[in-house]
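Re: glutathione structure - here you go.
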Amino acid sequence: MITPGLILHSEDSSPFSAPVRLAIYAKDLPIEIAPPPGGLRSTRYSAINPLGTIPCLMLDDGTPLPESGAIMEYLEDRFPMRPLRPASPEERARVRLMQRIAELQIMTPLVEIWQQTDPAFHNEQTVNMWLTRLVRGLSSMQIYLMEGTYAVGEQFSLADCALLPTLYMLPKVSGAFNKPDLLEAYPLLSTYCKRASAHAAAARVMAEMAPFWGEDSPDSAVESPAQIPGLATPLSPQS
Ligand SMILES: N[C@@H](CCC(=O)N[C@@H](CS)C(=O)NCC(=O)O)C(=O)O
């Protein structure tokens, strides 16, 4: 049964929405998932969510809760069963740290670099700046990745929700810049990715993302730039 009132506005192709859907699937939450009414960047959607971004969780009273990290924290607080946060404060801190690295130092550079595949917006300096940030983010993540099936050991957590979609996108985005093996340069991350992607919720989200990366299954190569919301039509040149 769907929880009355709770709606996640998301699109299958949205990189920042993928971690939230992954958390919802892993927790098996009965939350309706729907595209932004009127479409992303529409005035209708901006009236509902002033930030205008996806993901956005509409609460029972109609209050919009944007920002993937804030949504995932809220879902953990409201639905504590099947927890995606470990028990101890130290482990929780590590999960939050890894979420921050995944969002700010891996996903954000990937999205920025992907925008540069549009020749109208391409700027070599910008690409190199974000590639440097990306490489730093991947190296940082390897420092904190723990031994075990998942990012912080044997419990699937919000760190996995944040990290797995980024590692799914990494070969596709870097491939567009003739660096398709970038993930292979990080053996711990690469092994982790293969292992943790077998989680049913992760496999489901990757299958949802796959068509937008020119794939039928998560293992084949990207063929052409896809229509990724907020990515295909950059707002302004990044020079
Ligand atoms: N920090 C935000 C980023 C959200 C974001 O930028 N989402 C993209 C889609 S993946 C978006 O809504 N873009 C619309 C736009 O930039 O106008 C989060 O984690 O939720």
